[in-house]
Specification:
Layout lengths: L2 E2 H7 L3 E4 L6 E2 L1 E3 L11 E4 L12 H6 L4 E4 L13 E4 L3 H15 L3 E6 L4 H12 L5 E3 L9 H7 L7 E5 L8 H8 L3 E4 L13 H9 L7 E5 L3 H10 L4 E5 L4 H15 L4 H9 L7 E5 L5 E5 L5 H13 L6 E6 L10 H14 L4 E5 L1 H5 L9 E5 L2 H7 L8 E6 L6 H8 L7 E5 H13 L6 E5 L1 H5 L3 H11 L3 E4 L2 H9 L6 E3 L7 H6 L2 E5 L2 H14 L4 E6 L14 H10 L3 E7 L11 H21 L5 E3 L3 H6 L7 E4 L19 E6 L2 E5 L4 E2 L5 E2 L4 E6 L17 E4 L2 E6 L7 E4 L11 E5 L5 H8 L4 H5 L6 E6 L1
Parallel strand pairs: 4-5, 5-6, 6-7, 8-10, 8-11, 9-10, 11-12, 12-13, 15-19, 16-17, 16-19, 17-18, 20-38, 21-22, 21-28, 22-23, 23-24, 24-25, 25-26, 26-27
Antiparallel strand pairs: 1-3, 2-7, 14-15, 14-38, 20-29, 29-37, 30-33, 31-32, 33-36, 34-35, 35-36
Helix pairs in contact: 3-5, 3-6, 4-9, 4-10, 7-8, 9-10, 11-12, 16-18, 22-23
Length: 789
């Protein structure tokens, strides 16, 4: 995009004020202050959501050099800052959509819109990569497919683009109208339809019809015709358009056939179609691994061009800390054949400089020829190819670094990642951060816009790793994080988490750590309140926020109603502490047969918290609802709610689960043996084979978090989609499973202990416990891998 402030004011019906020239060019929109790299041409759009307000970050952005802002209200005291431009609108979100629509009006090339359930990003990238050598093609970055992402993608289309490929995702009926109005594509592509997001629609048919609204103005529609019912709906809704239905024997083949059909509709030529036929699907995942020598490794296997390099650098920076320097290992960049390589690598160098990269290790013949472009980076090293890097590089030269590893799959950069990973065994705990975001947004959709969410990350994020979850919650605009003990809060601060943190069980002897790290304690007794007051006074702390815990029926800890007058008197008379919130815990919100008790607790909380709020001379927030409470008693959401197990993909209530699986515990088959009937397996000969069997050993045991009660056939683990019962006792570091009925099972196959195919709820039911337990008891020695899709 290249429009002036005057252009944007006209297109968005904005009032332009400030002393910056209206002829100043805007080249990019910024909606997340943490993604700021360069300030040149940046217009910050201060979005307001239910739990976050972009206007709060304007003062800091001005300090960092941003001078153009789109706002709903100019923050007090900032309107007269020299050289600043203010575009004031009624709704920033609506203004971004109008701007996206205006950019679409100016675009005179062909726009391909992709929607569906599975394969949207994969097919989008395959089309893009097939067309890229000829140039003048644009694809929306990664998964910019939301109501905000689509208009941002439109404003990102470079001048001179002939073909733009935009991905679109929707969650519920009515969502597609905004996209259809903005995009007006000439070619539509409907990928494979699955059960994803079914809960947001009256039926699967309703979902398909909603998606097809995107193609109202298309001349041609390409679709996966493997489902006759869906094919019939497409034929009915898209009458009069050129329809092409294709499908293959497997998802990868279907994606390739869809890609080739779009290329033919674009008259792309034989070379592009041949490239698509040989193109391997790229992964949009960004994986985070623990590395050697206190390093953190971020692995990116997406299309390796300037467009995706920026998003990968942004992702890596958000996981960096002041204790680590920032390094990039990268191969040659993809670009059009007629692009000037010197300009491409100069742009990459400028990007790395803006993101604070201090070390570059380059591996590839083209980047080696243009290594001089990276003179602005403190330490630059170059290898002619990945093989040389793998063979000759001394890995002990890595220490306390956040390292982004990004390159083309054919360059074997997966081997570079493996080389630098912290040595662990073959068992991993995968954490899908996109699922965390989906679950957070689902619960946010149940709330009033002004209600804040307290994200529970205690017990190391229910076993998944608190820092990774906390960074995601910080990015999503949660109001608070909640931990159990002070040490958990200190860990988050050391990991770079800056948002408010509530400590639910704050009894400690290290009050200085509490105050120094701005950890806000809950207070549940007069004794604890007096200790906090004394230590605050000793440390010179005033007006420190605390959270008042009431016992309304859990009968663990908390103030009784009889203690509230004395509590109010104490809080009024002191200046060391300030009540930030009043809260309580529901004992039976997930017990459908105990509504009377829950109602009693809610009434008690209303009465007691209202008394305290009435006595205190300042505003105090309230919260009592947990995950189940949000779903069953939304009228009591007050100012905040606490989101726990639902964030991690487990619904506390029976029935349809609209959540996505967050945590997957996986291992790998390390040996396979065939035994005759009557053979015994494992300690105590507890596994007795009743048939000729194929038995696999996997390197995971009770020291990793697999409860011994899951042995001897009590549970099954999943191999190649088949449930395989355990055989014999679970050992400390290994266990055995029966894979007799799994065709073509082989050493190295993945084994799912729990995850999408084996829900953790089933594992918990076998153990006679709740899902919290198997989630949170996975051993720290099991490597956590965080990824975004």
């Amino acid at each position: 995009m290249n429009k002036t402030l005057n252009d944007i004011a006209r297109l968005c019906e904005a009032t332009l004020t400030g002393d910056a020239s209206g002829d100043t060019s805007v080249t990019s929109l910024l909606t997340d202050s943490r993604s700021l790299a360069s300030t040149d041409g940046v217009l910050f759009c201060a979005l307001t959501t239910g739990s976050s307000d972009g206007h709060r970050y304007i003062a800091e952005l001005i300090r960092r050099g941003v001078r153009m802002f789109m706002v709903e209200k100019i923050p007090d005291g900032l309107g007269d800052v020299h050289g600043t431009a203010w575009l004031t609108v009624g709704s920033v979100r609506d203004a971004i959509e109008r701007l996206g629509s205006a950019v679409r009006d100016d675009f005179d090339g062909t726009l391909v819109a992709i929607t569906g359930s599975a394969g949207k990003t994969v097919v989008k990238e395959m089309i893009y990569r097939a067309l890229l050598p000829e140039g003048d093609v644009y694809a929306s970055p990664r998964s910019w497919n939301s109501r905000l992402g689509v208009p941002l993608a439109l404003t990102d289309i470079p001048a001179g683009t002939r073909t733009a490929i935009i991905e679109v995702g929707i969650d519920s009926t009515g969502d597609m109208a905004h996209h259809a109005c903005m995009l007006r594509p000439q070619i539509g592509l409907l990928t494979t339809i699955t059960a994803e997001h079914d809960t947001g629609f009256a039926s699967r048919e309703d979902k398909v019809r909603e998606k097809l609204r995107l193609f109202a103005d298309c001349r041609a529609v390409i679709f996966d015709d493997s489902d006759p019912d869906i094919a019939a709906i497409v034929a009915e809704v898209c009458q009069g358009k050129r329809l092409t239905g294709v499908h293959g024997d497997n998802p990868a083949e279907t994606d390739r056939l869809l890609t080739q059909a779009v290329l033919r509709e674009l008259h792309a030529g034989d070379k592009a179609i041949i490239r698509a036929a040989s193109e391997e699907p790229v992964s949009s995942r960004l994986d985070v691994h623990e590395g050697i020598n206190d390093c953190l490794m971020v692995y990116d296997n997406f299309t390796h061009d300037l467009r995706s390099l920026r998003s990968a650098l942004d992702f890596a920076r958000r996981r960096s800390t002041t204790q680590r320097s920032d390094t990039v290992i990268m191969s040659d960049l993809l670009h059009a054949d007629n692009d000037d390589p010197a300009s491409v690598y100069a742009a990459a160098a400028a990007m790395m400089r803006d993101f604070g990269i201090t070390r570059l290790i380059a591996a590839g013949p083209e980047i080696a020829r243009h290594i001089g472009a990276f003179a602005n980076i403190a330490q630059v090293e170059c290898c002619p190819d990945t093989g040389t890097l793998l063979r000759d590089y001394d890995i002990n030269r890595f220490s306390s670094e956040t390292t982004l590893i990004t390159g083309e799959p054919k360059e074997d950069f997966h081997a570079v990642k493996d080389l630098l990973e912290s040595p662990r065994h073959d068992t991993i705990y995968e954490i899908n951060l996109d699922s965390v975001v989906h679950n957070f947004n689902y619960y946010r959709s149940l709330l009033k816009p002004a209600t804040g969410i307290v994200a529970m990350v205690k017990a190391s994020g229910y076993g998944t790793g608190a820092p990774g979850i906390a960074r995601t919650m910080q990015a999503q605009g949660a109001a608070y994080l909640a931990v159990a003990v002070v040490d958990e809060g200190v860990e988050l601060r050391r990991a770079g988490i800056t948002m408010p943190i509530m400590v639910l069980n704050p009894i400690t002897t290290n009050y200085k750590a509490l105050f120094d790290n701005r950890l806000e304690p809950s207070v549940f007794s007069m004794r604890e309140l007096d200790l906090l007051r004394r230590e605050a006074r000793r440390c010179g702390v005033t007006d420190f926020p605390v959270h008042i815990k009431l016992d309304t029926g859990m009968h663990r800890v908390g103030f009784d109603e009889s203690e509230l007058p004395a509590l109010a008197d104490t809080l009024i008379d002191e200046n060391e502490l300030r009540a930030a919130s009043i809260f309580s815990h529901l004992a039976t919100a997930d017990c459908l047969d105990m509504d009377d008790y829950t109602r009693m607790q809610l009434e008690t909380f209303e009465r007691a918290s209202s008394y305290l709020r009435g006595r205190l001379p300042y505003t105090v927030r309230r919260h009592i609802l947990n995950t189940a409470g949000m779903m069953r008693y939304p009228e009591y959401q007050y100012d905040m709610v606490r989101l726990g197990i639902g964030l991690y993909g487990v619904s506390p209530l029976p029935g349809d689960n609209p959540l996505k699986t967050v945590a997957s515990l996986r291992s790998t088959i390390i040996t396979i043996k065939r035994w005759p009937a009557g053979t015994t397996v494992g300690y105590g000969r507890r596994g007795v084979l009743t048939r000729q069997s194929v038995i696999a050993t996997i390197p995971i045991g009770y020291a990793d978090g697999v409860d011994r009660h899951l042995g001897c056939g009590a549970a099954s683990f999943v191999v190649r989609g088949h449930e395989c019962p355990t055989v014999g006792n679970i050992c400390m570091d290994q266990c055995m499973i029966d894979i007799t009925d799994v065709p073509d099972a082989a050493t190295g196959d993945s084994v799912e202990i729990f995850g999408p195919q084996m829900p953790v709820e089933r594992v918990a039911a076998i153990l006679g416990t709740i899902p919290y337990e198997p989630l949170s008891t996975v051993s720290p020695r099991v490597k956590r891998i965080y990824y975004r899709e």
